[in-house]
Every structure is written in structure tokens, then in C-alpha cells.
Write a structure and sequence with these properties.
Thrombin, subunit H; about 10% helix; 6-stranded antiparallel barrel; serine-type endopeptidase activity; about 250 residues; 13 strands; signal; 2 domains
Length: about 250
Amino acid sequence: MLPVLILLTFLLPLGAGAEEIIGGHEVKSHSRPYMAFIASTDTNRSKNFCGGFLIQYKFVLTAAHCREISMIVILGAHNISAQERTQQIIPVEKAIPHPAYNPMDHTNDIMLLKLKRKAKKTKSVRILNLPMRHARLKPGVLCHVAGWGLMSLNATKRPALLQEAELIIQEDHECKNVFRHYSETTEICAGDPKKIQDIFQGDSGGPLVCDNKAYGVVSYGKRRRITSGIFTKVVYFLPWISRKMKLL
């Protein structure tokens, strides 16, 4: 486990870079054992935070835009501002963003993290299954997203406790009207523009969970108004994910 002073360096108020959960609710403690909190340091020594999720006991899936020069993963957390006995703090050995990731239009915003050591399976640390290769989500399906992100558009401090919100899968054409770079091939649109309490964005890199499987990775949304959020479509990238884990 990292020394207390090093850990507290990462447990600072969230910066402006991560996406938000708006209108969510606290989940039952440790009921989302696949969740990962990713703390990192950039070239300017600024602290950044993202979400992610455990897909094998040595691999975490997150968003490519979360990549920084130094990264650690905290598993088994509910209160990220406390040193819970359930937490496993593991440095990242290697970050593998998708080679076609484009930060300008957010395309292919997915990244695999190889941990320096294998996580220990406990009641608070478990993997999240991925969908089958040909699985599809229909508009209207109810999904969930969780994270430790900001809880309102004007918030400056993130919650310490894990939050979760419900989202509805939207029609692709509706999201194309809002996001000009939206790709139905590689992305999923979820939210509900008619209900503010249902419009949420989880921490960047967190999972869009539908039927207990990770169908999406939180990628981006509108910063100054509440709309649906855009998720990288996991199904499309399954061959790449599988190939990379076999090689590492």
C-alpha cells in the first residue's frame, strides 16, 4: 500500500477535466466492486482523476483521454477520501490507449491499463463482464453509470462517496443533432434530455453498465448544459481489447 502522505496527495478536490454525475445517488457501500478510481500526475505535476473498471484482475479499462505520465489505480473503494481496509492501491505498469484515438473529436476514446501486480479478488474487488461481440443495445434500454465526479454544473468539489445514476439509451439520430462528431459505429448515446434528474455523466473512463455488463466507457458530453452523454462502444473494440490482453 502507498504511504499515507503519497495517498493523500492524490485525494485532493477534483479538477475541471473529469466528466460528471448529475442528479445521482450514493450506491450501497462496495456494491460496485468493479469500480476503479484512477489518480494520475501530468507533465506539469498537476493531479488528475478518472474512473475505470476491472475487466481482468490485472487489467482496467478506461478512457484514452485519461492517460498521464504517472498513474495509480484504487480498487475496492467507496469513500475515496478515506483509507478503507477494502482498498487495493496498485500502480499502473503500462497504459495502452487505442492507436487511433483522436483527442480532437474524441473518436476511439478507450484505453487498457495493465497493473503492476494482480488485484486480489475480494467481496469489494471483482471484475465486470464485457458483452458478447455481437450484442446490441436498443433505444429505451435502462443502464447505469457510477463515479466520484462532480454532482452539478457549478460544483467545484467532488463527492467522497461513490455515486450512481440511471440513463436511457437514446436514438442515434438524436445525438447526431447535438454532437457533430458522434459515430453510431463506435459510440453509444445515453441520458434523457427531458428529465434533468436522468441526465448524468459518470467520471471519464467509468462503465456504462447494462444487464450487468460493461457496454460503454464514459467519453464526453456538453460542459455547460445537461444533455445526453457519449460513451465509447465496448462491443466494437472487443477484438482490440482481447488481442492486447493476450500480448501483455
